[in-house]
Design goal:
TIM Barrel; Immunoglobulin-like; single chain; 3 domains; 706 residues; 4-stranded antiparallel beta sheet; alpha/beta; Rossmann fold; 23 strands
């Protein structure tokens, strides 16, 4: 966090620099392609860069698991360490590119990450860019990511993070340029805004990006309520605001709140949008000539933008981060962090005792499915290029030897097979059947990839405008799984699901021997999966989203009310609940104590590894309070801690509940700590019957009164 003395100097320098510009020069600085002003020593700068799970779109870099998988780690400390690796590689690439005079797109230090929107509906294609459905988990993982990305130097930012997309944004993708996301004040302040508030107030995030849609009638990139009243007013945000790409154009082409491009530019600038990812701000000269904007408004935006560049040290020569060599990019030690992240992210959903597999007892292992040898399924979207990829098939072959593996694709991911056979619905089914018949066990690797769930009409997207139509697997994947299970005739069948969101696994839950959710696990994902399958490491990831049984139980996709959504307000039983995950050992929770303090409340619990396998465990604290004035969630996550325990080892985990964590949000959006009884639940998951049935364990509970 930058010292206030230095920050005051940066702002003064920025004001002085802007004051020397002509009006025409000022206009050249307002889009994401800021032009050079040689007479003032200002080089060109491109504001657009991405680092969602590694430095993206700028060549080779360490490619970590997709954001939803990082959320599944439930590990704030490791998230900060991982983000520090990303900013190290970003710095290494920036200085090397700049030395060659390359200041183009994806080469700067302003990274438009993280995405802290709430994954409220499993049909949303971009949900895997987020940290899941819970505002507390999203806040904690987001704060850790921003801190790691921006660094802890008192004088300079290591990189500039960006909280996006502000706010109330989660599909449908095909409607985003015209859609009005209507949210009650309660849902706004209880669910949609807390993560943004935490990133602004705690992490001091340098940038915030607006969303494409309107929120309660106002386009988000031109919203007085969101930008001026809440972000800069209530929260005291001191960084710069950027539009989503070409979102300001939507003001007059999609939302129809303005009639012309100059009017749209004026509306965004007046609301407080400092830089336009797009070209509408090229119309600011016309807007100025028409009296729609003032030079003072332009100056205000430019001072914010140049303050950010000053904070990054882009006009100084004594910046410590400038010494990071190009060799720090894609470094071997970063590969180790990447592998650990993949291992930490995977969630064991079912295990009938078949995992871990024993390599020395396997004669032949069938590896089947359209994602088994897919590099695309490793990546997620907004990714860089890894120097080496390890698919699931390759990871298993490396672990036990290729001579022990029989591979069959089985079917395409979603496209119809070219020569359907009436006896075998997929043209590869026969090969899959033969593979499992000649093996001791089968691993079936199914799911999606970024071509099936992602951003609206992205060039890679080929299905559903980015969103999912439902929870069913596309193509012949479900039939393939059923065919393999039938052909296995009692042999173990293990399902590896590679998706960025929940899919229907109700049939699999009843018929396969084990299920491992791998998400989009990054370039080392196949190696990590193999290490878990063969017991080199115990899985300990937890679900950051609810895995529903059907979409029929959900409200309409366009309904932004939280009623009936996510674990906090859902009314049906989940297939796999938020916070759930198994390991290869058992943990016992004892001696829960809870008490009220002047700073909120605190809780302590003793955790013991009662099994024979070393493993991480994710202790979770949920809070429940019945308000007399408004509806409240069933319970809400308010604390988590990932710990590692050897067999027989125990530790005491401490939770601190801040006053903010105890607050109840009223129907008008106001917040406060109410009097009454507060119930605390601590264990390895939620206090719901489904989690108890799946884990065979009850959470501990205690209460305190205010």
């Amino acid at each position: 966090m930058i010292d206030k003395t230095y920050d005051a100097q940066y702002k003064e320098r920025a004001r002085n620099l802007v004051a020397q510009m002509t009006l025409e020069e000022k206009f050249t600085q307002m889009t994401y392609r800021s032009q050079a002003i040689p007479r003032l020593g200002i080089p060109a700068y491109n504001w657009w860069n991405e680092a969602l799970h590694g430095v993206a779109r700028a060549g080779v870099a360490t490619m970590f698991p997709q954001a939803i998988g990082l959320a599944a780690m439930f590990d704030e400390d490791f998230m900060e360490q991982l983000a520090d690796v990303i900013s190290t590689e970003g710095r290494a690439k920036y200085h090397a590119f700049s030395a060659l005079g390359d200041r183009d797109i994806y080469k700067g230090l302003t990274f438009w990450s993280p995405n802290v929107n709430i994954f409220r509906d499993p049909r949303w294609g971009r949900g895997h860019e987020t940290y899941g459905e819970d505002p507390y988990l999203t806040s904690r993982m987001g704060v850790a990511f921003v801190k790691g990305l921006q660094g802890d130097d008192p004088k300079y930012l290591k990189a500039a993070a960006c909280a996006k997309h502000f706010a109330v944004h989660s599909g449908p993708e095909k409607l985003r340029h015209e859609f009005d996301a209507e949210a009650s004040q309660k849902d706004l302040w209880e669910t949609y805004l807390p993560a943004f508030e935490a990133l602004v107030k705690e992490a001091k995030v340098e940038s915030v990006m607006g969303a494409y849609n309107r929120t309660n009638g106002e386009p988000c990139c031109g919203s007085k309520t969101l930008i001026r009243d809440i972000l800069r007013g209530k929260w005291g945000f001191d960084g710069h605001f950027v539009s989503d790409c070409w979102a300001i154009k939507d003001f007059h082409t999609g939302h129809h709140v303005t009639a012309t491009a100059p009017q749209s530019a004026a509306m965004a600038l007046e609301a407080g949008c400092d830089v336009n990812c797009g070209v509408v701000y090229l119309q600011l000269q016309i807007a100025y000539n028409e009296g729609l904007v003032t030079e003072e408004q332009i100056d205000q935006a430019l001072v914010r933008l140049f303050t950010t560049r000053m904070r990054l040290g882009l006009f100084d020569h004594d910046v410590p981060y400038a010494d990071i060599p190009y060799e720090a990019n894609n470094a071997p030690e970063h590969a180790a962090v990447n592998l650990a992240a993949s291992e930490k992210s995977m969630v064991l959903l079912k295990n009938e005792g078949v995992l871990p597999l024993h390599a020395d007892k396997i004669r032949k292992l069938a590896v089947i499915g359209p994602n088994a040898d897919s590099r695309t399924a490793l990546t997620g979207n907004y990714h860089g290029d890894a120097s080496r990829y390890t698919t699931v098939l390759e990871g298993i072959e490396d672990r036990i030897g290729a001579d022990k593996v029989i591979y069959a694709q089985g079917c395409n991911l979603w496209r119809p097979d070219t020569n359907p056979n009436p006896y075998f619905p997929g043209e590869g089914f026969a090969e899959a059947i033969l593979a499992v018949q000649h093996a001791d066990a089968a691993i079936v690797v199914l799911g999606l990839d970024e071509t099936l769930e992602g951003e609206e009409m992205h060039e890679s997207n080929a299905w559903g405008s980015g969103d999912k139509y439902g929870l069913q697997l596309p193509g012949h994947q479900e039939e393939l799984l059923e065919t393999v299970v039938k052909a296995a005739d009692g042999k173990p069948v293990i399902l590896l699901m590679m998706t960025g969101s929940s899919v229907d696994m109700a049939w699999a839950d009843e018929h396969v021997s084990a299920i491992l959710q791998t998400w989009y696990p990054g370039s080392r994902g196949g190696e990590a999966a193999a290490r878990i399958l063969f017991g080199d490491v115990s899985p300990a990831g937890r679900l950051p989203v609810t895995f529903y049984r059907t979409t029929e139980e959900l409200p309409e996709f366009t309904d932004y009310s939280m009623k009936g959504r996510t674990y906090r307000y859902m009314e049906q039983e989940a297939l796999y609940p938020f916070g759930y995950g198994l390991s290869y050992t058992k943990f016992q929770y004892d001696a829960l104590s809870v008490c009220k303090t002047e700073e909120g409340a605190k809780a302590e619990v003793v955790i013991r590894n009662c099994g024979t396998v070393a493993s991480d465990e994710v202790a979770q604290l949920y809070l429940k309070h019945h308000s007399e004035t408004t509806s409240t969630p069933r319970w809400s996550l308010k604390g988590f801690k990932r710990v590692h325990l050897e067999p027989g080892e125990e530790t005491t985990v401490k939770f601190h509940l801040r006053p903010l964590d105890l607050e109840t949000v009223q129907d008008d959006g106001s917040r406060g700590v109410e009097k009454g009884l507060y119930q605390v639940y601590v264990g390895g998951g939620q206090p719901d019957p489904r989690t108890e049935a799946l884990t065979g364990q009850q959470v501990l509970t205690a209460s305190f009164e205010i």
